[in-house]
Structure formats: structure tokens, C-alpha cells
Fold these 2 entries.
Entry 1:
Amino acid sequence: MNTTRLMTVFACVSFASITACEQRGTPPPATNNTTPSTNRPNPTNPVAAPDNTAKNKADGTGDTRTPLDQSQSSADIKITADIRRAILATKDMSMNAQNCKIITEKSGLVTLRGVVDTQAEKDSIESIAKATVGVTKVDNQLEVKNK
């Protein structure tokens, strides 16, 4: 009787192992909203994925400043924080303006990047950056959003 019970347990364990292996080999269903190798909407799910390919290529060349270029010196970090604090304290700044990229490097060289809602926001952020203690130069690359 013990042999029969042992064989039953062994058979159950073997079956569970085989089932688990088969399930692991099945790929999960696709969740991409676009058809393969295109950025066109999938007919069954018409929401297209955003296409930032051109912008991403420009950022990858090394010529464009990104947040990864932010200096780790305490003076440059303080400048970035002071600019961000002043932007957040300014009334009527859009969420886009509040989230613009501020990159400080080389003891005070500030690059502003991102999209803002109006030309007034772009000018205001540049003025804030220029008025911040420790800033030596501002490169304003902010873009005004097309409405």
C-alpha cells in the first residue's frame, strides 16, 4: 500500500512539473497598441503609441543636453534646485512649465529643455534662470506647444 501511495505522489508531482514547463513556454499575449514594425494604430485597438523617434535620436547624439548631463557638484545642484523652486512658486505656470528640464553643469551653465504652453512661460522661465545666483549662461531650448 505504501508503494501505491508513493507512486501516486510521484505521478502527481511529475504531472505538475510538466504542466508548469508547458505554461512557461507560452508567450504572453501582445499588449502593444500598434501593428508590428509600424507605428500605425492597430485596427482592433485604435490608440497609437507616441512616436518620439526623431527627438530620441537627437538626444542620443551627445550634442543635446539631457538630465543625465546634470553636474553632481553641490553648487550646480543648488542652482538647479533654486530655479525649480522659483518656477514652482510662480503663479499661473502650467504643468508643462513646472516640469521643464533644468540641467546645470560646468559651474553655472544652465540648459532649459521641454515643452511649455506659451511664449510668456518660456520667457518667464528664462528670466528666472538668468536671475538665479550662480548662473553664468542660459541656453533656452524650451519649445512652445502647438495648440
Entry 2:
Amino acid sequence: MLFSKNLLIRTLRCKNRNTPGVLGKLTTLIGETECYVGEIRTLEQGSRYTMRDIDVLFRQEEELDHLVKRIREELPDLVTLLEVRDEVLSLHQDGKIKTVPRFPVMNLGDLRKVYTPGVANVSRLIAEDVSLAERYTWATRTVAICTNGSRVLGLGAIGPLASLPVMEGKAALLSQFTGLNAVPILLETRDPKEFVDTILHIEKSFGAIHLEDIETPQCFEIEDRLIEALDKPVMHDDQHGTAVVALAAMISACQKTGKDPGAIRIGQVGLGGAGFAIARLLMGFVEHAVIASDLNTDAQDRFAKVGGEISNLDEIMETCDLVISTTGVPGLIKPEMIHDGQIILALSNPNPEISPEEALKAGAALATDGRFVNNLLGYPGIWRGAIDAGVRRLTMEMYTAAAHAIAELAPADEILPSPLDKRVHAAVARAVAFTAAQMGLARHPVDEDYLARELEAPAALE
């Protein structure tokens, strides 16, 4: 259950007897208590015992308590539970990101170059020609990750401060996988105008605006107004990052099942921020209407205005070859609704509308959930490509190119590649930058030599 924001994690430090099958019995017990096995790390191995740290993921403390009790009662001679540790809290202590200088100040000469008096000349140059800020500051290589914490996945309206650990994580991953800087920006307002005005006052510090975890319908207004006002790329990741990865999943699923993407009937269940963006991007790709359902009439009207077809869950399940669901309602799709050969992407996290196992058992040709259709596959490379190319706007063509790049790297036995695969982020960046150049939207040179030098050489992508 990787990437589910509201799952809990604890580390069990276990001393296991070196008898065949002991680790298997322990992991089976974890599964029987409806917990999930994460990373397993061997710490010590002797002739009679092996000490391991086992990460366990669960939804409620009662599940962990039940697991601990069963280990001690059922495996007393095989497993000694030494400690239950909360490594997540330890990892997050003092935050997950920091700002460090690129050039250390080791002597007076360094100080004079990095700060006064040398820096004054750089400031004068920028004052005379503001375009030089791209060359002489970090602004164009830095992304602002902006939120008001009003719609945090799986957690709801927890507010900006409580969402900061999530934003720090997004920033850390962006830096690790692309080498770009990222700064979380927390806004204590749920008024779209105040949100937009605040960003407009600080935008010069950044080369791109990444919107995250903002409630609907305010997220649509905020993004639209910022795109119109700013001369730099803006993306609401919950909309377009999700849509890119969902499109990649559709492309890959069609390839693996022999379906023609242009001929299949697509159903979208749920038209919130993610659902609306997914359906809209897929309509542009297949060039025919997507059928969608949502209980909110405003959401229905919004989708109809962009050419979508409004229906209901029963009709979608009965007639569609591909069904994507983003409702946040676990168990919404019943096994008896699925017909043979369907592709099911139940993306609500952590509890999908139907589990992949249930969907496959009911006859689906292919099924997955939000654990694997993850935004991390998209947004780092999208930002790297957009910033390298110097685009002022992200377009549907760039998003589609990113989706193709992701799908092409899917292993034979998986719908999508791992987001930890460094090749994915370089491929997405390359696709976005090349598409921008082909559309005449790149302000910076984009060619084979440039991409080889800039996308494959950085330590962040090695």
C-alpha cells in the first residue's frame, strides 16, 4: 500500500529462529490481520537467530495491537518481538527538506563573491535586464508547491500546516528525481481570490507554480486565474498529474489486452478535480466523448460544457470497456457489475471502489488501483521538461507526450513502471521538452545534445 497518505506505518524489530518457513509464517500472520508488509531489512544473522526490521502498514491502531498479540501468542517459540518503533515520526522530525548553498563560503574571497560587494553587480545587471534573473538566480529552477490543505488525499480539509509534511514530501521527491528546487507555500485561506492574489505577490521567486490538495470547485478557478495571469507554467497536480498517469495506464492496458484506444468506450465515475481532468485528457486522446457520472449537478454541467456525456454508474459498468473511478467511495463498484474483458482503474486511495483482486476474479481483463497509478510517475518529469524548455504554458499535447513516455517503460507484467525508476522521470522530461519545441513553445534550445547533457547527466537522475 505504498503512497497512501492516511495509512499508518510501524517497524517491528523481530528476532526469528533460523528455521525454514519462520519468516513466511510471520508475513502470513501480518496479512491475516489485514495489515500490509512493507520493507524487510536484515540487521543481524547468526547461527540460530536472524534479526530483522519489518515495516507494517495498517489503517487503525487496533489492527496493529491485534497483530502484536497474535505474534506473541501464536509464534512464541519462533519469533521474539523486540520492539515496535515509529520510524515515520523519527524521519519527519525537523522536516524532510532543507536549503543548502551551492558554493560554500570558505574564506573572505568567497564571501566577497557570494555576498557583498560582488553580488551588487549581479543585482544591477538584473535591474537593467530582468531576463538575466533566469541565468543568475535560482528562480527559474525552483517550483513553488502551493496549498491551503483543503483537500488532502485521504485526510480531507486538515488545513495548510497539517498538510506541510505532504508538501515537503512532494518537494523532496521533485529534487531527488529531477534536481529541481521546490519550496512548500502554505496559504491560510479558502477564498480563491485571496489564494491567487497571494501567489501573484510572490511568484517572481519561482519558475513554476505547482498547486496541490485544493478542494473543488475552487481548484478550477485558482488554476485558471493563475494560468491567465502568469507568464510561467502552472499545474494543479491533483488534476493533471493524475490525468497523465491515468492516460498512461489506459495506453498500457490497451496494449496489453489488444484493445484499440481509439475505439473503446470509456467511463469515468466521479468528476471531482482528478476525475474531470482525467476524462478531459482522455477525450482529447481518443477524440470521442467519455461517459461520466457524478451526483453533483455542477460537476455534470462543467463536464458537459467540454463535450462530455453524462450518464450513471449502472450504464457505465454495463457498456464501457474501460472504467476509471475517482469517487473516494470504497466498495462502490460491486463484482456483479463487471463484465468479461473490462479494464478497471479504481483509483480512490487508500480504499478503492473495488480491489484489483475482486475485479479480476469477476472477469476484468486487467485491473489496478491508486497504489500504482501514482502522480509521482508524472509531475517531476513534467516540471523538469517544462522548465528546461522554458515554456510559459503546459498543454494537453505535453501531458499526452508525458503519458506515452510513462507507458512505454511499463514492464511486461505491470500496467505502469515503478515511480522509483530513474528512467521514467528523464523520459517524461524529454517528452515534454521535445513536444514544446515541436509546438514552437520552447524558449530555450531543445536538441539531442542538450537533452543528453541536461537530462541524463545530473546526479539526481543517476
